[in-house]
Amino acid sequence: MPIPLTGGLLSGEVRDADGKPLPGAEISVFDRSSKRVAHSDTDAYGFFAHAVQPGDYRIRAEAGGYQTLHERAGVEWGAHHTLGQLTLVPDETLTIPVPGVYEIDPDHSAVRFVARHIAMSRVYGQFQEFSGQVRIAEDFEDSHVEVLIDAASVFTNAEKRDEHLRSADFLDVARFPKLHFTSHRFSRAGGNRWLIDGELTLHGMTSDVQLDTTYLGMQEWNGLRAGCLATTQLHREHFTVNWQQMLARGVPVVGSTIEITLDVQGVLQQ
Questions:
Q1: Going residue by residue through the chain (270 aa), what tens digit of pLDDT does each one get?
Q2: CA pair distance 44, 66, nearest whole angstrom
Q3: Domain of life here (predicted)?
């Protein structure tokens, strides 16, 4: 990255305690008035670089599952200041949950989805009735999750649209009343991120699904609770949900890719 004619260059690299690069770490640069003047994520090798005006700066590096790190640096005109290696250490409060069986609390959890409409706006919806369990094993990779969703509970705040989604064109709830997800592998992706591989049965078809999951920690409130946020993308064609209506120039009324978010609180069972 060239040094700008009107300022200087600030760079560094972020690694974990084992010396491995931390891609996607969030870097924020603040001036002396605490105004954020630069912001980015580290690249695939943990590096970052910012062109800034000459002056003194505070640099904040943070990543999920790690303690936030603060550094200070002065940047001179026409010069390149490198921070070198910034090491983030694990946040022990965001290690794996206490082993045991966690019942999903439907009152403090949500299963949401987003679909594209006529390649312009987004339609937001959710399933209002679901249940499930997460079993955290002593050996974390042996953990397991299972979720059962009532297909007829689909809700997008538009009655006619919800009726259409329940029909044979989409979910066909009369024939396939439940959506069922069950995992077959847990793996750590670094920090507080997990990858959960499993199978989703929808519309009578079963397909592999991977949940990109962020562990949010544990809290004591009406029992010991663990929280997580999981996301994935589904392609309707994989589950033979093939209804489609096209507008002029081949624009689909409903996009084929559906974004799914699971916001989950689980209560440890005694």
A1: 777 778 899 999 999 989 999 999 999 999 999 999 999 999 999 999 999 999 999 999 999 889 999 999 999 999 999 999 999 998 887 878 899 999 999 999 999 999 876 556 788 999 999 999 999 999 999 999 999 999 999 999 989 989 989 998 889 999 999 999 999 999 988 788 899 999 999 988 899 999 999 999 999 999 999 999 999 998 866 565 554 554 445 444 556 788 999 999 999 997
A2: 18
A3: Bacteria
The encoded tokens of residue 79 equal 């010069």
Phi, psi of 248 (to 5 degrees): -60, 150
- Distance between CA atoms of residues 55 and 104, nearest Å: 50
| CB neighbour list of residue 114: distance below 8 Å, 6 or more residues apart | 122, 123, 124, 125, 258, 259, 261
